[in-house]
User: Which sequence fits this backbone?
């Protein structure tokens, strides 16, 4: 119930295309869903996050879509650029108890954007 | 520009030696996490602290790993004795419990030969 399943493992997109990464979770107590971006040799960095009271959040070219009934959320990168090539992690966290603030991470997606 | 700092950035050591990694969380953050990242296992949570108290260290091999927060500005992760399978990148992250945003340091790349 603590798992977050992420797909695909790797993704190749042409410059200007749309990159879509999906995540699914089981634990209905999760109420915070961030995405992290990691470049080689760097630590993961918070990219965008959503709470389940909204179905979509957009920041620039990055959009999270959230489907509470399906327990799924996805990251869409519009007009993908070579500089977006990185590993992307979805994560989830729940309120309450001693574990609040603790993130459960997906396995990561390696995105390559070809020029 | 507040950020998490980690030292050392790289460490090469021989099997059996003690390794200590240090982390300075962002000032004011009350939660500190230690992660290990490998190609095979991805990001694994080893331990985390809130207000310097350990909350969960179930991800750590107890016989060789230990984590402490001697004060609010320093977290340490120690491996004794180190083994080749400990080779990985170790990340420290800090944050506030709510809304669970975590800020990662640059990592310590550990190689045990």
Assistant:
């Amino acid at each position: 119930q603590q798992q977050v399943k992420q797909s695909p493992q790797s993704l190749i997109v042409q410059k200007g295309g749309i990159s879509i990464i999906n995540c699914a979770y089981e634990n209905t107590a999760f109420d915070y869903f961030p995405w992290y971006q990691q470049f080689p040799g760097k630590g993961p960095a918070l990219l965008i996050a959503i709470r389940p009271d909204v179905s979509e959040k957009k920041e620039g070219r990055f959009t999270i879509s959230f489907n509470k009934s399906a327990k799924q959320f996805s990251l869409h990168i519009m007009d993908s650029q070579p500089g977006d090539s990185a590993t992307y992690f979805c994560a989830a966290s729940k309120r309450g108890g001693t574990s609040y603030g603790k993130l459960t991470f997906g396995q990561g997606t390696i995105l390559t954007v070809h020029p | 520009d507040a950020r998490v700092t980690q030292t050392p950035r790289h460490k090469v050591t021989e099997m059996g030696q003690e390794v200590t990694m240090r982390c300075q969380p962002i000032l004011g953050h009350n939660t500190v996490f230690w992660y290990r990242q490998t190609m095979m296992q991805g990001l694994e949570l080893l331990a985390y602290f809130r207000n310097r108290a350990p909350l969960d260290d179930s991800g750590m091999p107890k016989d060789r790993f230990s984590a402490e927060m001697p004060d609010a500005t320093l977290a340490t992760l120690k491996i004794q004795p180190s083994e080749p399978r400990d080779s990985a990148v170790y990340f420290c992250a800090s944050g506030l419990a709510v809304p669970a945003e975590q800020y990662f340091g640059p990592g310590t790349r550990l190689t045990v030969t």
Summary: Chain B has a mean pLDDT of 93. Residues 18 and 80 of chain B are 5 Å apart (CA to CA).
